[in-house]
């Protein structure tokens, strides 16, 4: 197996599944710490923001030809995700106890997009270097010439739905209800 094929296999069958499972583990950590009664809906909204900041680059990498634009989307998403993660943890630490297990899960959630971005950059090194003016940058957005297997795309989208969108949607609803209950107690209604 070539180095390129090995890196792509590692990305597809190790990094992406570990990333999805860590997202689900983080949801269960939030549920165990009852964020609906502590940090509330604001923290849940930060989680959804982080989900979007990694979701857009993931979708781009899955469906679009990798070039300077897609790599730029990935790098910007990574930087913004990391900044939001710091904001999220700072807020969470001020409002609730963040367990050691949750801290370790956060480590995986911070490193997975960094590793994914690094692997994609390595696989498309000339396009990555073009972001720094070395070589000619390609910026056209186009669908992959050789798409990833349909079963793989379906599996990833199902994983995103089951391990990300549904749990974090439930978390948002739970924290919204918790915020309403807290507000009602405070106003005596």
Give an overview in words.
- This protein is mainly alpha-helical and 189 residues long.
- It has one domain (3-184).
- The chain contains six helices and no strands.
- It has helices at 3-32, 40-63, 68-95, 100-123, 125-130, 150-187.
- Helix 1 runs parallel beside helix 6 and helix 2 packs antiparallel against helix 3.
- The radius of gyration is 19 Å and the shape is elongated.
Please, how many helices? 6
Shape assignment: elongated
Strand fraction: under 5%
Radius of gyration: 19 Å
Helical proportion, percent range: over 70%
* Biggest sheet architecture: none
Low-pLDDT regions = none
Secondary-structure element series: HHHHHH
Number of separate strands? 0
Number of domains: 1
User: In terms of structural class, how would the helical and strand content be classed?
Assistant: mainly alpha
Average pLDDT across residues? Answer: 94
The end-to-end span amounts to 66 Å
Short structural description:
With 189 residues, the chain is an all-alpha fold. The protein contains six helices and no strands. The chain has one domain (3-184).
Task: Fill in the keyword field for this structure.
189 residues, 0% strand, elongated
Task: Write the topology of this structure.
Elements: H1 3-32, H2 40-63, H3 68-95, H4 100-123, H5 125-130, H6 150-187
Helix pairs in contact: 1-4, 1-6, 2-3, 2-6, 3-4
